[in-house]
Write a structure and sequence with these properties.
Layout (H helix, E strand, L loop, with lengths): L5 H6 L21 E5 L9 H5 L5 E4 L9 H4 L3 E4 L9 H5 L5 E5 L5
Antiparallel strand pairs: 1-4, 2-3
Length: 109
């Protein structure tokens, strides 16, 4: 077996694995429970976004949803991308205002 000099390997690195595209990594079908945000309780602390293990929680304009006060409504709101949400419930568990309910997937219309 011949050895390849390091200089040659650096020129043409061989990928160890290929990472599937975003479209192939949708994990929403794994869910049994779906997080549902009650925007009248949400204080937009973004703890749910911080603790979400997937890129399933994202920011939207604050005027898009209700808020407990006008001051809070000026802040960005969060939404859940159900294509990537696994339904783990970490967001609901971490929410200090209990503004996220985990609802059985079958009950959502």
């Amino acid at each position: 077996m011949s050895k390849v000099p390091l200089e040659e390997m650096i020129k043409f690195p061989t990928p160890i694995a290929t990472v599937p595209s975003k479209e192939l990594n949708k994990t929403g079908a794994w869910r049994t429970f779906r997080p549902v945000i009650d925007y009248t309780k949400c204080i937009r602390c973004y703890i749910c976004w911080k603790f979400c293990p997937e890129p399933a929680i994202y920011f939207v304009d604050g005027d898009k949803h209700e808020a407990p006060s006008e001051a809070i409504k000026k802040m960005d709101a969060v939404e859940i991308d159900y294509d990537y949400c696994k339904g783990c419930g970490i967001c609901a568990n971490e929410c200090p205002r209990n503004a996220i309910d985990m609802v059985l997937e079958e009950k959502i219309e």
